[in-house]
Design goal:
CATH superfamily of the largest domain: von Willebrand factor, type A domain
Strand order of the largest sheet: 7-6-5-8-9-10
CATH topology of the largest domain: Rossmann fold
CATH architecture of the largest domain: 3-Layer(aba) Sandwich
Number of helices: 11
Radius of gyration: 38 Å
Number of strands: 10
Distance between the termini: 51 Å
Structural class: alpha/beta
Number of domains: 3
Largest sheet: 6 strands, mixed
Shape: elongated
Length: about 425
């Protein structure tokens, strides 16, 4: 005889059951595989749309533990609805698989289930963060929020604290009843002593003793009425959750995203850069509540743009990096002082005017002395001026700059993990 254990506990509102959470943890490697496939072959922006993502799990990885008798020995079983076999018949074993299939004998299909967008994103970004976020002196933003600040004796019904009110009720009833209960016990003991003394001798109770007994009975009844009159809950017991508006410190950070859109960046290179920035944009928007993003497109000219134009703009031209760095410096000077944590991410194929190198190095050195981190992504395999400039003048002179190369779509996620992995 076999049996199954089923968790029938009700799910909380907007929460996954414990069974689902355990199942998602079990198939974590398959979810990771689906993420990598989306980055390699799909559109990263699809992650933020829709209700979730389909994940395919091999059948062998979804088996559940179950209790059953071990194999072997002689057993007798009754199969309801059997119209084909009788006692003594031998049932042939299926050719392949586990039965129930067509003539080919194949087994069941792999299991496919829908993982929610929140679950998908939690696994997607669980080990990523902006590097060295707290090295610099953190400043604060004037942000306010409601914070629990104890209890009050008045408030709106929606903020009534039932447990605290019940505790107040218990304390009040104990304070009012206990002295009366002690007095009640004393009077009852006195009455019992008198009744017991005369009951043993069978003597007639004198009139003065009888009057005393009547007085004790009257006092006992009066005290019982007073004890019973103490209400279970009173308005003075009610306690309400109290909230106050408080200022809370919040880290301020900004990410400058520089993308080369010059003529040397062909469609394939631009697509790789856009997909990397889509991933970075989603990561920043989801992970950090207070972070500014400054998108800058550049060719011979540089321009701060919005999200739509950054990803889908068509403008192109020659290549000059210095205007983009100059624009970024101006924005930093105007909007982001030294109290901000400032980050740069720069994607380019490495092409730049030879005469622009000296100015770029000067501006990069100035920027790197003021920021937390500079991530440079080389798109393609070109070995040209900009990559040499970074290798010869920048990478060896500063600790807060990292570089990586993306050759094809499958490199996007490994490069992203390399540049933005948590540091233990």
């Amino acid at each position: 005889m076999s049996g199954q254990i089923i968790d029938r506990r009700a799910n909380g509102k907007h929460k996954s059951s414990s069974n689902r959470q355990r199942f998602v943890r079990r198939v974590n490697k398959h979810v990771r595989g689906a993420i990598k496939e989306n980055i390699k072959n799909g559109n990263i922006s699809d992650i933020t749309s829709g209700d979730g993502q389909n994940v395919i799990v091999p059948k062998k990885d979804i088996s559940e533990p179950w209790f059953h008798h071990s194999r072997g020995g002689n057993t007798e079983r009754v199969y309801p609805g059997n119209k084909e076999y009788v006692t003594g018949d031998q049932i042939p074993k299926p050719d392949n698989g586990e039965g129930g299939g067509s003539g080919s004998g194949d087994g069941d299909d792999d299991f496919q289930f829908m993982i929610s967008k929140k679950e998908y994103m939690d696994i997607f970004f669980e080990d990523l963060e902006l590097p060295d976020l707290i090295k610099k002196q953190l400043s604060t933003i004037n942000e306010t929020k409601l914070k629990r600040m104890g209890f009050s004796v008045d408030g709106v019904p929606s903020r009534l604290n039932y447990i605290r009110s019940l505790k107040q009720s218990i304390g009040r009833r104990a304070a009012l009843r206990n002295p009366k209960k002690r007095k009640l016990n004393e009077l009852e003991n006195q009455l019992a002593d008198i009744m017991y003394s005369y009951a043993e001798t069978f003597n007639i109770v004198p009139a003065e003793v009888y009057d005393k007994m009547q007085d004790l009975v009257s006092q006992i009844e009066a005290i019982k009425r007073k004890i019973k009159a103490v209400p279970f809950i009173d308005t003075i017991d009610l306690r309400y959750n109290r909230f106050e508006i408080v200022n809370i410190p919040t880290t301020r950070a900004v990410m400058f995203m520089l993308m080369d859109v010059s003529g040397s960046m062909d469609e394939n290179k631009k697509e790789l850069a856009k997909r990397f920035y889509m991933l970075l944009y989603i990561f920043l928007s989801r992970t950090y509540k207070h972070i500014d993003i400054v998108p800058i497109r550049y060719h011979t000219d540089a321009k701060e743009v919005d999200e739509q134009e950054f990803f889908y703009g068509k403008e192109t031209g020659g290549t000059l990096l210095s205007p983009a760095l100059e624009l970024a410096q101006d924005i930093m000077k105007e909007r982001y002082d030294s109290t901000w944590n400032i980050y740069y991410c720069h994607a380019s194929d490495g092409d730049n005017s030879v005469g622009d190198t000296e100015e770029c190095v000067e501006r990069l050195n100035d920027i790197l002395n003021k920021i937390q981190y500079y991530a440079y992504i080389q798109i393609g395999v070109d070995d040209n001026t900009l990559s040499i400039m970074f290798d010869d003048y920048i990478l060896g002179s500063h600790d807060n700059v990292e570089s990586a190369v993306i050759y094809e779509a499958s490199d996007i996620f490994p490069v992203f993990k390399k540049l933005f992995s948590k540091v233990d």
